[in-house]
Prior knowledge:
By secondary structure, this protein is an alpha/beta fold. The chain has one domain: 2-Layer Sandwich (Transcription Regulator spoIIAA). The protein contains three helices and five strands, in the order E-E-H-E-H-E-H-E. Helix 1 runs parallel beside helix 2 (55-70).
Amino acid sequence: MDLEVDGSILKLVGDFDVRSTSTVRQALYAHLEAHTDTCEHDIVVDLSGVPSVDETALRVLAVATRAAERAGHRLVLRGCSPSVRRMLTVARFRHRVSVEPVAV
């Protein structure tokens, strides 16, 4: 899993599964901490480079979403592939995280 930071955007590249959740969790919380005192309301996690996720990865995103909300921010998933969107729906995580609509 590769991680890139661009302002309030955290971009993930690679499979987001149980093997990478620890790395992503640490990066997410560091990213949230870095933006706690900013005016930026949305913290974006760009998943356009993530071909697949598992349920463990979705749990990390759901918990980070709650942490962001407690800090007065909103964690938003951007660039979700059809397989990631499907997993969000199948695992019933769609209501726990914010997903940007797909541009048509």
